[in-house]
Automatic annotation (TrEMBL):
It comes from the Bacteria. Residues 11-147 form the HTH marR-type domain. This is Transcriptional regulator, MarR family. GO terms for biological process: response to stress. It comes from Micromonospora eburnea. SMART domains: HTH_MARR. PROSITE patterns: HTH_MARR_2 (PS50995). Coiled coil: none annotated.
Length: 160
């Protein structure tokens, strides 16, 4: 029986650097999003996913799949967003048991107000630090890993 294939020094440096970068980047983007727009990352994800659909509606189950959350967890989060007037739940016309989540005018306004600052933060903390070649390499490697982990089944148009 073969033992584990330990990471060599170069691989370990890359892996640890990636993990540290991801944590720090996620923390900073979340902090700025909350400070500037009063939205959490999950709020932003829900609002942006809904805003990118033609009718600004998604089945709860599809939204949960896109966010990689359980339906129960998402349902609880959506209740809080509903209380803030950002989304509403509607009955699914084709399935009485399912629900559809729709963006409200306040939700549309919130995502439109938050998006410019969020994109600016993504640029400042990641994109503008890279050369065009590094951006292309980052896109290629992230899509390769996502394709591997999803079996080629991307769950969100924004991931394509």
């Amino acid at each position: 029986m073969d033992g584990p294939r330990w990471l060599d020094e170069r691989e370990d440096r890359a892996w640890r650097g990636y993990r540290r970068m991801r944590r720090l980047l996620d923390l900073e983007l979340a902090r700025e999003l909350m400070q500037d727009a009063g939205l959490s990352e999950p709020d932003y994800d829900v609002l942006s996913d809904l805003s990118e659909t033609p009718d600004q509606r998604l089945r709860l189950s599809e939204l949960a799949d896109r966010m990689l959350w359980s339906r129960s967890r998402l349902s609880h989060h959506l209740t809080r967003m509903q209380q803030r007037g950002l989304v509403i739940r509607e009955e699914c016309p084709s399935d009485g048991r399912g629900s559809v989540i729709a963006l409200t005018p306040a939700g549309r306004q919130a995502i439109e107000a938050a998006a410019p600052g969020h994109v600016d933060a993504v640029r400042r903390h990641l994109i503008d630090l890279l050369t065009p070649e590094e951006v292309a390499a980052l896109g290629a490697l992230t899509h390769r890993v996502v394709d591997h982990l999803t079996g080629g089944q991307q769950t969100s148009p924004s991931e394509a």
